[in-house]
Amino acid sequence: MPNTSTPITLSETSKIGYGRRYNQFVRAVKRRIAIRTGQDKAEVQITPADLVDFVIAKKGNYAPNSWRLVRASLVWSLEEMALQVDPVSAQMIMDQVERLRRERADPDDDRDAKTSSTKAKKLADGDLALIEQTALEQRSKYKQHLVLYLKVGILTGLRPCEWPGAALRHSTRDGFAWMLVVANAKATNRRAHGSHRTLYFAELDPQTANEILAWIRIARSGRYQRLLNTIGRLLWKITRELWPDGPEWPTLYTTRHLAVAAWKAHYLYKGQTDAERLEALATIAAMMGHGSDATASQHYARANAGLKAIVPSADPEEVARIRRIIDLNWFGKLIAGDDTPPAPKVSP
Q1: Can you give the CATH number for the domain in which 181 is found?
Q2: pTM reported for the whole predicted model
Q3: Are 161 and 278 within one domain?
Q4: What is the rounded distance in angstroms from the CA atom of residue 134 to the CA atom of residue 241?
Q5: How many distinct structural domains can be found in the chain?
Q6: Is 296 exposed, middle or buried (0-12, 13-18, 19+ CB in 10 A)?
Q7: If you ran DSSP here, which 8-state letter would residue 119 be given?
Q8: Sign of the four-CA dihedral 73, 74, 77, 79
Q9: Residue 181, φ and ψ in degrees, nearest 5
C-alpha cells in the first residue's frame, strides 16, 4: 500500500480539484513532448517521471501555498494510480511520489508577484496560433465563435462591449477602402475623445471584412452577453490546459492589448522628433478611444514589433482632439524594451 501523507479522507470537491489539476499537467507535458518530437499529441505516452520532472522544473513559479497545493494534487493522484497497477509499476510510481514529497517550496526571487490580477497583456504569435488550434480541437459548439472573436479583436482593438455599436462601411476618406465606426465605451465618463471613433483600413481582404461583419451581427443579437461569457470560459479552460503553471493567462480583453502593441510597433520608432512622437501617441490613443495619449502608454502592452498585424489609421479630426500630456522620456524607455521604466510624469 502506498504510504501517503495526504489527508486520509478528502471531500469530493477536493478530489475533483486535485484530479483536474493533475490532468492539466498531464496535458501540458504531452503537448510539450508532441511539439518537441513532432508526434501527434494523442499518441504521446508519458511516465510519472516525465510528469514530476516537468512540475519540479516549474516549482520556482509558485508561492509556498500554491506549491503545496500543486504537490498535494499530484501526490494524491499518483497514489490513486499506484493502487490500480501491478506491484512493480506501483513501486515506480511511489518512487516519484517520494521524490515529489521531498521538494519544498522555493520561489524564484525574481518571480512575478502573484496577485488577483492574472490577465495577460501580451501573447506570442505562436501561443496565439496554439490557442486557436486547441480551440478547434474542443467539442464545444462555440469554438468557431472564440476563434472568430480572437481574429477580429486583435485586428481592431475593440473592447468586447463595443461590438454591438460598431459598423463596418466602405470608406468616405480618400486612400482607404474600409472604415470601422465604433461607439466609444468610455464616452460617458469623459475618458474618451468623443462619442465615436473611426478606424480606417487601406484594404481588407474579403474574408477579413466578412469576419468583421459576421462578428458585428453576432454582437447585435440578443444572446451576445451570454456568448461572451461562454467563449470567455472556453478560453479560460484552454489556456489553463496549455499553461497550467502560468502566472497569467489571456482573456477576451487581451486582444485589445495585442492590437495596441502592434499599433505602437507601427507608429512609434527610434529617431522620431518630439512632435512626431506626440502625433504617433495621439493617433494610437484616438484608435483606442481614449481622451489622452497618457492612457495609451500607461495601461496597455508595450510595443511588439514581432506581432504581424494589419494596422489601421485614425481619423485626423479625432487625433486633433487628443490632449497631449505625456512624458516622452518615460515613454521612450517603455518602447525601447525597458522592463522597469520609471513612473511617468504627467502634467495636470
Answers
A1: 1.10.443
A2: 0.59
A3: yes
A4: 9
A5: 2
A6: buried
A7: B
A8: negative
A9: -95, 130
Query: 191 lies in which domain range?
Result: 125-335
Q: What DSSP string describes 125-177? A: HHHHHHHHHHHHTS--TTHHHHHHHHHHHHHH---GGGGGGEEEEE-SSTT-S
Site of grid cell 502593441: 261
Mean pLDDT by groups of 10 residues along the chain of 348 residues: 50 84 90 85 89 87 82 93 92 93 72 43 72 89 95 95 96 96 69 76 96 97 92 90 76 90 90 87 85 48 58 91 52 42 38
Residue 91 lies in a domain: yes
Residue 108 resides in a domain: no
Query: What's the pLDDT at 327?
Result: 43
DSSP 41: G
The answer to whether 331 and 281 have CB atoms below 8 angstroms apart is yes
In angstroms, the CA 33 to CA 316 distance is: 50
Longest CA span, the chain:
78
- The strand pair at 196-201 and 313-314 is best described as antiparallel
Give the list of residues 6+ apart from residue 63 with CB closer than 8 angstroms, or none: 105, 107, 111, 114
Return d(Cα 281, Cα 295) in angstroms, integer: 10
C-alpha cell of 270? 527610434
Residues 87 and 158 in one domain: no
Q: Note the pLDDT of residue 163.
A: 96
